[in-house]
Amino acid sequence: MFKVTMIGAGSVVFVKNLLTDILDFDQLREVTISLHDIDAERLETAGMMARWTAAQFKANPVIELHADRRAALEGADFVINMVQIGMHEATLIDFDIPRKYGLKQTIADTLGIGGIFRGLRTIPFMTALVADMRELCPDALLLNYTNPMSILTQAVYEAYPEQKVVGLCHNIQNTAKELSTYLGVPVESLSYDCAGVNHMCWFMKLRIGDEDAYPRLWEASRDPEIVAKDKVRFELMRVFGRFISESSEHNAEYTPHFLRSDKEIADYDVPVDEYVRRSERNLRRYAETRRKLLASEAFPIERSVEYGSLIIHAMVTGEARVIYGNVRNTGLITNLPENACVEVPILVDRNGLRPVHVGELPPELAGYCAPHVFVQDLTVKAALEGDAERVHRAAVLDRNTASVLSIRDIRSMVDEMIEAHGDAMPAGIARKRRAAAA
Description:
Shape: globular
Strand order of the largest sheet: 3-2-1-4-5-6
């Protein structure tokens, strides 16, 4: 029997999805599922959901609920992280203060000023989690699902180089499904080679069977009804020649081109403040999920597109497969900085994860990704070293922020956000904040 620990199990629907994926494999049903959350009600709800999901498979995993993180980690083989530090209240800060300065955002969980501050308040948790893992389950693989993906994964391998870690996302899988609808083919008929950084992975090759699918995608890009579903990404394809992962609402805030004016926002149908609405919807969804569990109502059961269970299956059974993950750039993409966090194909089997060497990206595609890599690196170093000045530098270098605000306004905004997030900031930055206030 092996053990999977889920940290942040209050993300109840995600627990159902991941556990469905795991128990869908007959070979993985002899498993201990250890759930941890600091919110007692959410932890109880996660336990109800885990037991309900197991019952659908007529499986009998050992399901443990732990308010204490260390107890949950003891002896784990796989640790899945899905926390959101600060929850909805922190999300509002990440949007409200920049908006006051005239800076618009859409999702703000990966890059931009919102991504920087979500990273800053989550990195102390990540390093504390891994410190516990080094003591209690040193051979466990950490599967990180929490955003900002690149920042948090890099923070782990910078602080603890010996820790086995991979950042997992569904941006490539979801984009493949969207591309299949644009091409009018089943997603199962597509194959692809992708590389880049998280949420900015380029579909270097795209095939339908043995056929190059790009000519058909270019044809689809001339259909106004198709383009209307994904305006930003089709515009980026017209400029750079390849399709990019993640959604138009995400990519709209990764560049200086789509949020500078009301006209651009209208022309590209950019959903400003979208994540605030999603966050509110998630709160309602949790409440409805708990109500249904207490009323013994049913939920849909189907496999998700997440890679977590595929990695676990490959490592437990030895059946090799290829997934996409976020790992340290050890010469994998040669024209992105060494040690940056990159998203590449990874071979997984009983021996673990072996990232695939990609080589050089076309310069325009590397150039799209590279500015963000340096912002991510500055954010990681700011958190690990308690250096508030590096937070200012990261914000000044962010492409969307710099397209709208002056350096002085950026510095004022950063200071106000550090103050608003208070003790959620890394220790050194929080201490400097208190010293300045005194």
